[in-house]
Amino acid sequence: MSSKVETNDACFFVYPYFYSLQDPRPKQPVFKAIPVNDDLKYKRKYKELKKRIREMEEENEKLSLKLTRAKKNIQRLRIERSFLFERLEQSHSKDNSESDITSTPQRVVDSEEDLSSVGSDSNDDNGSHTISMTV
Protein backbone atom coordinates (compact mmCIF):
# COMPACT_ATOMS: atom_id res chain seq x y z
CA MET A 1 0.00 0.00 0.00
CA SER A 2 2.81 2.32 0.43
CA SER A 3 4.68 3.56 -2.53
CA LYS A 4 8.28 4.52 -2.66
CA VAL A 5 9.30 7.87 -4.11
CA GLU A 6 12.92 8.72 -4.68
CA THR A 7 14.21 12.24 -4.82
CA ASN A 8 17.81 13.40 -4.42
CA ASP A 9 19.03 10.14 -3.01
CA ALA A 10 16.51 10.30 -0.19
CA CYS A 11 13.86 7.77 0.28
CA PHE A 12 10.39 8.88 1.36
CA PHE A 13 7.44 6.68 2.00
CA VAL A 14 4.06 8.02 0.96
CA TYR A 15 1.27 6.80 3.18
CA PRO A 16 -2.27 6.55 1.94
CA TYR A 17 -4.76 9.09 3.39
CA PHE A 18 -6.23 6.66 5.92
CA TYR A 19 -2.86 6.25 7.58
CA SER A 20 -2.13 9.56 9.23
CA LEU A 21 0.26 10.54 11.94
CA GLN A 22 -2.63 11.69 14.12
CA ASP A 23 -5.52 9.55 15.17
CA PRO A 24 -8.57 10.76 13.18
CA ARG A 25 -10.94 9.96 16.05
CA PRO A 26 -11.66 12.91 18.34
CA LYS A 27 -10.16 12.48 21.75
CA GLN A 28 -12.57 12.38 24.63
CA PRO A 29 -11.49 13.51 28.06
CA VAL A 30 -10.49 10.70 30.30
CA PHE A 31 -12.07 10.87 33.74
CA LYS A 32 -10.32 9.05 36.44
CA ALA A 33 -12.49 7.48 39.04
CA ILE A 34 -12.18 9.24 42.37
CA PRO A 35 -12.03 6.88 45.29
CA VAL A 36 -15.10 6.88 47.53
CA ASN A 37 -13.12 8.19 50.51
CA ASP A 38 -11.88 11.19 48.56
CA ASP A 39 -15.37 11.86 47.23
CA LEU A 40 -16.78 11.91 50.77
CA LYS A 41 -13.90 14.08 51.91
CA TYR A 42 -14.61 16.64 49.16
CA LYS A 43 -18.34 16.63 49.92
CA ARG A 44 -17.63 17.23 53.60
CA LYS A 45 -15.20 20.03 52.75
CA TYR A 46 -17.77 21.58 50.40
CA LYS A 47 -20.42 21.55 53.14
CA GLU A 48 -18.00 23.09 55.64
CA LEU A 49 -17.11 25.86 53.21
CA LYS A 50 -20.79 26.56 52.45
CA LYS A 51 -21.46 26.78 56.20
CA ARG A 52 -18.54 29.20 56.68
CA ILE A 53 -19.79 31.35 53.82
CA ARG A 54 -23.27 31.50 55.37
CA GLU A 55 -21.80 32.45 58.75
CA MET A 56 -19.65 35.15 57.17
CA GLU A 57 -22.63 36.57 55.29
CA GLU A 58 -24.68 36.67 58.51
CA GLU A 59 -21.83 38.37 60.36
CA ASN A 60 -21.44 40.84 57.51
CA GLU A 61 -25.16 41.65 57.68
CA LYS A 62 -24.96 42.23 61.44
CA LEU A 63 -21.93 44.49 61.06
CA SER A 64 -23.51 46.48 58.26
CA LEU A 65 -26.62 47.06 60.43
CA LYS A 66 -24.38 48.11 63.31
CA LEU A 67 -22.51 50.50 61.01
CA THR A 68 -25.78 52.00 59.75
CA ARG A 69 -26.98 52.56 63.33
CA ALA A 70 -23.65 54.14 64.28
CA LYS A 71 -23.81 56.51 61.31
CA LYS A 72 -27.37 57.53 62.25
CA ASN A 73 -26.29 58.15 65.85
CA ILE A 74 -23.35 60.24 64.68
CA GLN A 75 -25.66 62.31 62.48
CA ARG A 76 -28.10 62.78 65.38
CA LEU A 77 -25.29 63.83 67.72
CA ARG A 78 -23.98 66.33 65.16
CA ILE A 79 -27.43 67.90 64.95
CA GLU A 80 -27.66 68.03 68.77
CA ARG A 81 -24.19 69.58 69.01
CA SER A 82 -25.13 72.20 66.44
CA PHE A 83 -28.32 72.97 68.34
CA LEU A 84 -26.44 73.27 71.65
CA PHE A 85 -23.82 75.56 70.11
CA GLU A 86 -26.59 77.81 68.81
CA ARG A 87 -28.23 77.95 72.24
CA LEU A 88 -24.88 78.64 73.89
CA GLU A 89 -24.21 81.44 71.43
CA GLN A 90 -27.65 82.92 72.08
CA SER A 91 -27.13 82.80 75.84
CA HIS A 92 -23.71 84.46 75.51
CA SER A 93 -25.10 87.19 73.30
CA LYS A 94 -27.97 87.66 75.76
CA ASP A 95 -25.50 87.80 78.69
CA ASN A 96 -23.34 90.30 76.84
CA SER A 97 -26.31 92.57 76.15
CA GLU A 98 -27.40 92.37 79.81
CA SER A 99 -23.89 93.11 81.05
CA ASP A 100 -23.85 96.24 78.90
CA ILE A 101 -27.01 97.43 80.65
CA THR A 102 -25.78 96.84 84.20
CA SER A 103 -22.35 98.18 84.97
CA THR A 104 -21.82 96.47 88.35
CA PRO A 105 -21.91 92.71 88.64
CA GLN A 106 -24.21 91.25 91.24
CA ARG A 107 -23.16 88.36 93.41
CA VAL A 108 -25.50 85.85 94.94
CA VAL A 109 -24.66 84.41 98.34
CA ASP A 110 -26.30 81.16 99.40
CA SER A 111 -25.36 80.49 103.03
CA GLU A 112 -24.42 82.20 106.28
CA GLU A 113 -20.83 80.97 106.00
CA ASP A 114 -20.45 82.65 102.64
CA LEU A 115 -21.82 85.87 104.10
CA SER A 116 -18.96 86.27 106.56
CA SER A 117 -16.30 85.71 103.94
CA VAL A 118 -17.81 88.00 101.28
CA GLY A 119 -18.32 91.27 103.05
CA SER A 120 -19.50 92.97 106.22
CA ASP A 121 -22.80 91.76 107.58
CA SER A 122 -25.07 93.97 109.63
CA ASN A 123 -28.58 93.59 110.98
CA ASP A 124 -31.21 96.29 110.69
CA ASP A 125 -33.67 96.98 113.46
CA ASN A 126 -36.27 95.07 111.40
CA GLY A 127 -34.16 91.89 111.49
CA SER A 128 -33.23 91.93 107.79
CA HIS A 129 -29.68 91.32 106.66
CA THR A 130 -27.72 93.91 104.78
CA ILE A 131 -24.52 92.92 103.03
CA SER A 132 -22.04 95.46 101.83
CA MET A 133 -19.79 94.33 99.01
CA THR A 134 -16.44 95.79 98.11
CA VAL A 135 -15.36 95.25 94.56
TrEMBL record:
Location of this chain's protein in the cell: Nucleus
Protein origin, superkingdom: Eukaryota
Residues in INO80 complex subunit F domain copies: 42-88
Record region (Disordered): 90-135
Record GO cellular component, one term: nucleus
Keywords linked to the UniProt accession: Coiled coil, Nucleus
Transmembrane annotation, as ranges: none
Nucleus among keywords: yes
Sections of the chain in a coiled coil: 39-87
Principal localisation: nucleus
Keyword Translocase: no
Pfam family for this entry, one: INO80F
Protein name as annotated: 17975_t:CDS:1
Organism: Funneliformis caledonium
